[in-house]
Automatic annotation (TrEMBL):
GO terms for molecular function: GTP binding; GTPase activity. It comes from the Eukaryota. GO terms for biological process: mitochondrial translation; ribosome disassembly. InterPro entries: EFG_II, EFG_III, EFG_III/V, EFG_V, EFG_V-like, G_TR_CS, P-loop_NTPase, Ribosomal_Su5_D2-typ_SF. PANTHER family: RIBOSOME-RELEASING FACTOR 2, MITOCHONDRIAL, TRANSLATION ELONGATION FACTOR G-RELATED. Residues 22-307 form the Tr-type G domain. SUPFAM superfamilies: EF-G C-terminal domain-like (SSF54980), P-loop containing nucleoside triphosphate hydrolases (SSF52540), Ribosomal protein S5 domain 2-like (SSF54211), Translation proteins (SSF50447). The lineage of its organism: Eukaryota, Metazoa, Chordata, Craniata, Vertebrata. This is Elongation factor G2. The gene is GFM2. Pfam families: EFG_C (PF00679), EFG_III (PF14492), EFG_IV (PF03764), GTP_EFTU (PF00009).
């Protein structure tokens, strides 16, 4: 790898050159775990000249997987940013995790990026976490390029049907592979009809040099026919989607569509990509050093520059740093469209929008309104906020204790820092026991947090048993009323509330409330807010075990408030009335049910199915994927403790699996009674 001084020298040279926004690409690499994201990133850094040796995930020496936990496990845990140049363009790249426990890392990376490269294992196609990260990219309207990696694997299949069917993506095929499996040697560029061949002579060959030549009659007839058919289909597809290109064909190339210049075809594909009407698809093998340079060219050719994504807010910070994984270089200034770090912001968290002053925020708001043609008057503008990130609810929790009470303050400081860095980590204090409780996205997530506290903060903590974050709902409709009458000093507070609760679909994962028309028109906004606070606070603790509620709706029938009554007293009365109604409606525990995907060899299917049956699992489908079987099932999260270890044992390590939250379902009476007794200390 590069030495630190070499890396810093590269960065200083990089930032000494002014790069205009049109020459910048802010991109993320996203995929299912083990699809080859980090390996692809490593090759990009090497071919761009920013590292001088190829790192390997298995050897634990890649640039972006710099955390000790990442190098020990061979997976990406937190997003890492790197910056390099390619063909006179600046590429700011973020390598994101593929494990479901760290989905939020992908979310907050996509939130600030302009484009993304979705990496696929060509032998597996679209996998569980691929669907998740693709949905995240769609939510943020991110233009994407697809890269079918691992074309060297024996089971590799150059098929884009799974992308079309499962992701509902309009794929635009730009390359045809030359060979497959161990015979994969390169690609044919359908825009230029150039054949790109990597003649790798040994494992030590770095793939930097490759042969590029036009297709001619000496090439295999089957390849020539496949390329001709694919290019004709590409031209037809682009013409159907891009009116400007269709007009060009009909006007200037009506006699021979194939004569259209590659540059015109490339411009049309770029327009489709930026408009998210199409997704360019390329292929290669990053581990075998084949096909990465054309992918870099595609990033520049098809993904947007910052000024094409309308990120027009510019801020001036006191100290700016450019990230290169775990190394940073201080720079004097930053032009619009770049990605940088700043230090000293002690009160900010992920999702905040930072401005230099109220005046600059007002000016930016006015510019935004002017650009949108809103015609707002000065002083009549809204606050400009960039969209935040949606943080999923934790599904696991456990207690954490310092070795001695003298370390409690240090532990609290460590947890505060980690929460600012990772919003999916939640920390609370149990009101009954006073213990600190960690809430996370999965076993691995909490395990990593525990390990980081030990390594980075030097605190040896003890974790309690891992527990499932259940939810509660109500069984029946119930109505009740309550009156609160309190006198404090000379001020009397009197409020009477009547409301009703009823169950709705708990799978929707939400609770809501509404006023009757009479109440809506009678209450001031201040008192409406007070009523809402009372309702929402009651949703945080169910009537059975105190778990948060799902699938409950509340209707406020009447609110009578005597003059002089404070909003706090209104909230208190509503909360007390809600608690009564929830108890009358009867409680039901909901358990998180996970969507499980296991890829195994066929002879191991019986053992895995037998284990799954003992975990209250329900098989949804068993699919074939080349020589393997893909088992799709739903399983209660409570039954998945330690599953990775058990699966590794019964399959001799020849299996992979992914797990993500599917829904919350009502527990059967027997399991619910067992849980109630366990919580009550009777078991």
């Amino acid at each position: 790898m590069c030495s630190l001084s070499q890396m810093m020298s590269n960065h200083c040279a990089l930032w000494s050159t002014l790069i205009y926004p049109s020459k910048i690409r802010n991109i993320g690499i996203m995929a299912h775990i083990d699809a080859g994201k980090t390996t692809t990133t490593e090759r990009m850094l090497y071919y761009s000249g920013y590292t001088r040796a190829l790192g390997d995930v298995d050897d634990g020496d890649t640039v972006t997987d710099f955390m000790a936990q990442e190098r020990e496990r061979g997976i990406t845990i937190q997003s890492a940013a790197v910056t390099f140049d390619w063909r006179s363009h600046r590429i700011n790249l973020i390598d994101t995790p593929g494990h479901v426990d760290f989905t939020l890392e992908v979310e907050r990376a996509l939130r600030v990026l302009d484009g993304a490269v979705a990496v696929f294992d060509a032998s597996a196609g679209v996998e569980a976490q691929t669907l998740t990260v693709w949905r995240q990219a769609e939510k943020h309207h991110i233009p994407c390029v697809c890269f079918l990696n691992k074309m060297d694997k024996p089971a590799a299949n150059f098929s884009i049907e799974s992308i079309r069917q499962k992701l509902k993506a309009n794929t635009v095929l730009l390359q045809i592979p030359v060979g497959s499996g161990k015979n994969f040697t390169g690609v044919v560029d359908l825009l230029t009809n150039q054949k790109l061949i990597w003649k790798i002579k040994s494992m030590g060959d770095d793939g930097r040099m490759f042969e590029s030549k036009p297709l001619d009659q000496s090439d295999e007839p089957e390849l020539m026919q496949e390329v001709n058919e694919a290019r004709a289909a590409l031209i037809e597809q682009v013409a159907d989607l891009d009116d400007e290109f269709a007009e060009l064909l009909l006007t200037d190339f009506s006699d021979n569509f194939d004569a259209v210049p590659p540059v015109k075809l490339q411009e049309a594909v770029r327009r489709l990509t930026l408009a998210r009407k199409g997704v360019p698809v390329l292929c290669g093998s990053s581990l075998r050093n084949k096909g990465v340079q054309p992918l870099l060219d595609a990033i520049i050719a098809y993904l947007p520059a910052p000024n094409e994504r309308h990120h027009d807010l510019v801020e001036r910070m006191s100290r700016l740093l450019v990230p290169f994984a775990d190394q940073n270089v201080e720079i004097p200034s930053m032009t619009a469209g770049n990605i940088a770090l700043t230090v000293g912001l002690k009160q900010t968290v992920t999702g905040d929008t930072i401005v230099s002053s109220k005046a600059s925020a007002a000016a930016a708001a006015l510019r935004a309104h002017s650009d949108n043609g809103a015609g707002e008057k000065r002083g009549d503008h809204a606050t400009v906020l960039l969209s935040g990130v949606e943080v999923p609810d934790p599904v696991f929790f456990c207690t954490i204790e310092p070795p001695t009470m003298a370390k409690q303050a240090d532990l609290e400081n460590a947890l505060n820092c980690l929460q600012r860095e990772d919003p999916s980590l939640k920390v609370r204090v149990d009101p009954d026991s006073g213990q600190t409780v960690l809430c996370g996205m999965g076993e691995l997530h909490i395990e990593i947090i525990h390990d980081r506290i030990r390594r980075e903060y030097g605190i040896e903590t003890d974790l309690g048993p891992l527990q499932v974050a259940y939810r509660e709902t109500v069984l029946h409709e119930a109505s009740t009323a309550d009156t609160l009458d309190r006198t404090f000093g000379e001020r009397r507070h009197v409020v009477t509330v009547e409301l009703g609760v009823r169950p709705v679909d708990s799978a929707s994962g939400s609770c809501d409330f509404a006023f009757t028309e009479e109440v809506e028109g009678k209450l001031s906004q201040e008192m409406k807010d007070a009523v809402e606070n009372g309702v929402q606070s009651s949703y945080l603790q169910g009537p059975l075990l105190g778990y948060p509620l799902l699938g409950v709706t509340t209707l406020i029938h009447s609110v009578n408030i005597e003059p002089g009554t404070s909003p706090a007293m209104v909230s208190a009365c509503v909360s007390r009335c809600m608690d009564k109604a929830l108890r009358l409606a009867g409680g039901q525990v909901l358990e998180p049910v996970m969507s499980l995907e296991v890829t195994i060899e066929e002879e191991q299917l019986g053992s895995v199915l037998g284990d799954l049956a003992q975990r209250r699992g329900t098989v949804r489908d068993i699919q074939s994927r080349h020589d393997n079987k893909v088992l799709l099932a739903t399983v209660p999260l409570a039954e998945m403790m330690g599953y990775s270890t058990i699966l590794r044992t019964i399959t001799s390590g020849n299996a992979t699996f992914s797990l993500e939250l599917d829904t919350y379902k009502a527990m059967n009476p027997q399991d619910q009674n067992t849980l109630l007794k366990r919580v009550a200390g009777l078991l």
